[in-house]
Each structure stands twice: as structure tokens, then as C-alpha cells.
Description:
Elements: H1 2-28, E1 33-39, E2 42-49, E3 56-60, H2 71-77, E4 82-86, H3 106-119, E5 125-130, H4 133-143, E6 148-154, H5 165-175, H6 179-189, H7 192-200, H8 211-221, H9 226-236, H10 244-254, E7 258-263, H11 271-280, E8 285-289, H12 295-314
Parallel strand pairs: 3-4, 3-5, 5-6, 6-7, 7-8
Antiparallel strand pairs: 1-2, 2-4
Helix pairs in contact: 2-12, 3-4, 7-8
Amino acid sequence: MKKRSFILILLLAAASLSAKVNAQVDSRAYHIKYRKTKIDGIEIFYREAGDPKKPVILLLHGFPSSSHMYRNLMERLAPHYHLIAPDYPGFGFSSCPSPAVFNYSFDHLAEVVEKFIDKLQLKSISFYLQDYGGPIGFRIINKRPELVKSLIIQNANIYLEGLGPDVQKIGTLTAAHDMKGLDAVTAYMMSMEGIKEQYIYGTKHPERISPDSYYMDHFIFEQPGIKDIQKILFNDYGNNFPKYPEWQEYLRKHKPPVLITWGKNDKIFPGSGALAYKKDLPNAEVHLFDGGHFLLEEYGNEIAGRIHTFLQKINR
């Protein structure tokens, strides 16, 4: 009896050790992997986490950031989803070809991201759209609605009601052809002070905002040629406004499941932009947070929970 008990204890111990080893192996699948691929000869850097067999979330970043803005969210959601976050050309760690050989426009960035989606063979995608990710992502989904499983929208505006004072100021200067004034505004937005302000302004808990984020963005912007690229995109931004009605019609026609998490104090795209989505999608799930433009820095845990609850419902 004693011998059998001893063997049983050994078997249980071995099973426990095996479970721990398997758990360690499984957990490695959740680590973010840093990859590169080429699209039309341009090297695209992207972050990937989670099991490719699980539901796909494509995370499209904004200005002045990169896929770095999703680093913490990806770790939180990786056990349940397959997450992909690319850097656009001219951003983050992707290639930054000269404007002489690459057309920096929102139309062209959307084409590059669409080809990236096809190269990675992504299907049934939940698109996470923030800031620049809005006009880039909506160009793709309006063209190819079959790709869309759902939309997760965070301070990505497609309504005139959602244009904050910073955007309106740029629009006024552009309409007046006041290039000197426009250069001054854009130069500030790309300075250390301007980048930090976009992270801090409107936050309820500024102590939660990691300096890593705005210092990294500033470091990237100080690299040769980056500010010239960003100025070109600033000048092209006005071409997004005429497309707003098309994107609103997409929502009315296709009625995708939509989760909106929004920093209501954002002076680029304030909370009124989030509420405007309800005009075309009365059933959209909207959560206004007491935060700013880079909401994930302050409310990452809360937003990860909202996303998981939302996607669990639509993936049943």
C-alpha cells in the first residue's frame, strides 16, 4: 500500500510539473513578437501577439505615435486574440522612403496597409482605429467590407462635430493659405512640448502616463526627414473631410458591431465625435472616459476589459 501511495504521489507531482511546463510554453505564445515584411519594396515593421487561430484584431495607430501605443493592450489581450499592429511608412520602425520616391498621402498609406492585410492573409478582422488609423482604416473597410468583423474606435473621428480646436485651427490656416502660421502650428505639434501635450492634456491621472511614450515619439521625429514627411501628411489631412459622408454611409449600410472608447477631454477629437456615431449606429456601444487623446496610456486595463466583453458577445 505504501509503495502504491508513493508511486501515486510521484505521478501527481509529475503531472503538476508537466502542467506548469505546459503553462510556461503556452504563455510564450502571448509574448509580443517584433517582425518585418516588405510591401512594394517598403519594409513594414509590426508587432504580433497571440494565437493565429484566434479572432484577429488589427490595431492602426495615430499621430505622432506608432504601434508602440498598443504595446500594453496587446499583452493584456494576447491570451484571447491574435493581434497585429503595423507601423505606417514614415512612422515608428518602418522604412521612411524619401517623398521623392514615395507618395505620402492617406490614400497611399491605406493602400500599403491593405496590401499588408492581404500579405498576412488576415480575414474577419476587428479593426482598432485611433486618430490617423481612422481615415486609413475607413478607406480600407469602405472598399472591402467583407474584411470586417467589428470596429473598435478610439478618438478616431469621421464627423464634423468631432473636430476639436486644434484641428479647426489647422483647417482655418490651410483654407487661408497661411503657410507661415501652419508651419508654426505643425512645428509645435512635432516638438517635445507638443507631443507631450497630446499625451497629457485632458487626463485625469497624468501620473499614469509613461514618459517612455512621448520621449520615444520625439526621438523618432528627430530622425532625418521625418518631420518633412509629417508636414506632407498634415497638408493632405484635409482630403479626409470630403470622405466623411462615404464612411458614414458605410456604417448605415453595413451596420458593423462597433465599440467606441473615447477620451472626452481630447482637444483634437473631443467626446462629441464619439457621440456623433450614434446618428448612424444607434446600437453602437459608447464609453466616454475622463481622459485625453491617448486613452490607452491612462485607462488601458479598463479598455482591455471593455474590448474583451464586446468581442466575447459578437464571437459567440
